[in-house]
Amino acid sequence: MKPLELSLPIAHAPNTLLHLHLTIQPSATAPILLFLSTSSGSSTPLGSFVYALPSRSSKNEPLSTPLYVSESSLEFTTRLAKILVRQTGRPAYVGSSVGFDGIDGVDGTVEEGAQVLKDVVEVILDNISEAE
Asked: Taking the model in full, what pTM does it have?
């Protein structure tokens, strides 16, 4: 399957776009592969890469492990990977350089991060349901 490439505006940061590169295999057990980055005119480091999978003992608490760590994006990347696993039941590889430090107009508050996370999850789940 050809990867989907999407861009979303970030609320509170009108000059910044969030870019998603999403690969969804048709099999319901195949992992989701997602890469996120932002564009705002400044360069960003590579970011974190996290693998998450459903837990056999607790459906509500997926297991995750960071494969590559960048402190500025690790929390967001891990949270997104676990949400995708909970919502889809599929394993997920998530790479993200998204950190809210240094984005013009974004203070890095919990509310702003939660809104970006919500928007990303909504777009991804819509595309997964279309692919299946």
From this structure: 0.86
37 within 8 A of 98, measured Cβ to Cβ: yes
Q: Determine how β-strand 32-39 pairs with β-strand 13-23.
A: antiparallel
- Residue 31, Cβ neighbours under 10 Å: how many? 19
pLDDT digits (tens, 9 = 90+) for 50-66: 999 999 998 789 999 99
Structure tokens at 108: 């890095």
The three-class DSSP label of residue 111 is helix
Name, in order, each residue with C-beta under 8 angstroms of 99's C-beta and a sequence gap of 6 or more. 44, 47, 70, 72, 73, 76
> Phi-psi bin for 104: left (phi > 0), alpha (psi -120 to 50), beta?
beta
Instruction: Tell me if residue 14 falls in helix, strand or coil.
Output: strand
Tens of pLDDT along 96-106? 988 655 444 45
Query: Helix, strand or coil for residue 50?
Result: strand
